[in-house]
Amino acid sequence: MGLADIAEGIEVTETQEERGVATVDGTDATLEERLVAFESELPCSAAAAATALERYTAGGSVGAAGGAAGIAPVTAAKTLHLLGESVSPVGPTGRDIVRDWVAGNLSRTEAMELTRLDEAEIALAAYVETHDPLDEACAAVEGILAARHAKSQEPLADAVGDATDLL
User: 41, 24 in Cβ contact below 8 A?
Assistant: First the structure.
């Protein structure tokens, strides 16, 4: 078998067919436009959620973000939670206590005493424990919350303790 026999049927083309990974570029859409698809699952409108998220990522508190969006601070916190931000008013032990209360193993009064939370904080903690973030919404706002975290990172944050570490 010669080289001519091996090359028989091979075609030469001038361009190669693109076989890359399909991508969707959502950067042209505003934050509000990206959140419209999740409006029925959010506790506020897409416009309010976008405003709250923008204010929060600019360095504002949850309360300031809610005020800018015209919604209650707890609604802003719920929205931020559904979009992937950690807003639980309790740490790991407090989360266990709230889970025990939600499961019916503790009374509400006991849970509030053990966690030292007020009415609004225990309600938010229960919401966080009973509602998972919306994966698709988190993907739609990907990078926005990460920018806030990058700005808030201090170079020696992991080297210094928290004030409560001394108690």
Answer: no
